[in-house]
Amino acid sequence: MSMTAAQTPLLESDFYRFQEQLTDQERASLGKLREYLERDVAPIADEYWARAEFPKQVIAPLAELGMYGPGVPLVRQFENSAVYRGWAALELGRIDAGVATFIGVQSGLAMNSIAVAGSDEQQREWLPRMASGEIVGAFGLTEPLSGSDSARGLRTTARRDGDTWVLNGSKRWIGNATFADVVVIWAKDVADGQVKGFLVTSDTAGFTATKIEDKIALRSVQNADITLEDVRVPESRRLQHADSFRSTATVLRLTRTEVAWQAVGISVGAYEAALRYARERVQFGKPIASHQLIQDLLVKSLANITASIALCTQASALQDQGLGGDEHSAMAKAFATARMRETVGWCREVQGGNGIVLEKGVARFFADAEAIYSYEGTREVNTLIVGRAVTGQAAFV
């Protein structure tokens, strides 16, 4: 039986009871998501992480829970807030950052690209099938030689040839790309120098996706190197409202706050595992939870989580009010990921040497934190976005 709002307990790590700000419908939906994740995802997360495989069996159930496109009016299952979507990202990160990242790519990046920059026809054609999980999407922005400077440094080109476009270039670190049906490719138009978006299906001639091996973080996420060799895309699959990098930036602003929430979820997952361990582990004749130094580590971790939830809640609330800017999502991402990095380190420390073993519950979060810390804008670049807002001066190179 699925939980109702009244039956959905607050997380022990929600120390200041922020979740009570959600509506009854949102809390009930969050309870259903938590129930599924704890029952069906948590038991397999370590296994798939160790094998560097993605558990594709979760795709359909997560669609039924409305996880793909919850902020897109065309496909969302009920009226929900950005604050709710943040809590959903936290719940996902708390159980498996790999699954959280899959949804972030499918929903936040690929679907939002179509919702923000696609025509009405493109939205009707693609979004319902992506929301149902029938189609898996990916987002092709980062390149081997272009990451933080994507606004100016894209090398992938698009050349108009009659009613088609010819794409050439390469992409790197593209999540979901090894099994995606469609990839949103961002490329620079050689005619006007502007960045445009294209819906490229994986069976298109000249398109190749090769899995990146030997990662130490987000191992279950199927990141790929993509090569585009004279890939021909019809004009009907060019995102009709993407005529500059501003469209790309809008998508990133919408998703960056949710990545911050994912980071809080990783902190929560590590904290919960550390707290369980501290209560069970006996040294010097008593549980280590009764030791002052262990309590110090746990309380510092909980304070980081609490401060991050507060900041993310307000960043999402501003988004709900139409007041959220690049600087708000950037500060949330920079702060929450920095605090996450501290928190997973302290939680690993609580477990001592056992903290590096998957079965003790912290190690996977400890490793995955490194990837979340860097993607969707590094801390340094996000700091510069905030710095530009508060000083009026751009410090970008």
From TrEMBL:
Return one GO MF term. Answer: glutaryl-CoA dehydrogenase activity
InterPro entries xrefs? ACX4-like (IPR045008), Acyl-CoA_DH_CS (IPR006089), Acyl-CoA_Oxase/DH_mid-dom (IPR006091), Acyl-CoA_Oxase/DH_mid-dom_sf (IPR046373), AcylCo_DH-like_C (IPR036250), AcylCo_DH/oxidase_C (IPR009075), AcylCoA_DH/ox_N (IPR013786), AcylCoA_DH/ox_N_sf (IPR037069)
Fetch the SUPFAM superfamilies from UniProt: Acyl-CoA dehydrogenase C-terminal domain-like, Acyl-CoA dehydrogenase NM domain-like
Which Gene3D superfamilies does this one have? Acyl-CoA dehydrogenase/oxidase, N-terminal domain (1.10.540.10), Butyryl-CoA Dehydrogenase, subunit A, domain 2 (2.40.110.10), Butyryl-CoA Dehydrogenase, subunit A, domain 3 (1.20.140.10)
| Protein keywords | FAD, Flavoprotein, Oxidoreductase
Q: Which domain of life is it from?
A: Bacteria
UniProt key word Ubl conjugation: no
Q: Report the residue ranges that make up the Acyl-CoA oxidase/dehydrogenase middle domain in this protein.
A: 138-231
Q: Which residues form the Acyl-CoA dehydrogenase/oxidase N-terminal domain?
A: 23-134
Q: What is its EC number?
A: 1.3.8.6
Specify whether Membrane is a keyword of the entry: no
What cofactors are annotated for this protein? FAD
Q: Which family does it belong to?
A: Belongs to the acyl-CoA dehydrogenase family.
Q: What is this protein called?
A: Glutaryl-CoA dehydrogenase
Q: Which organism is it from?
A: Curtobacterium salicis
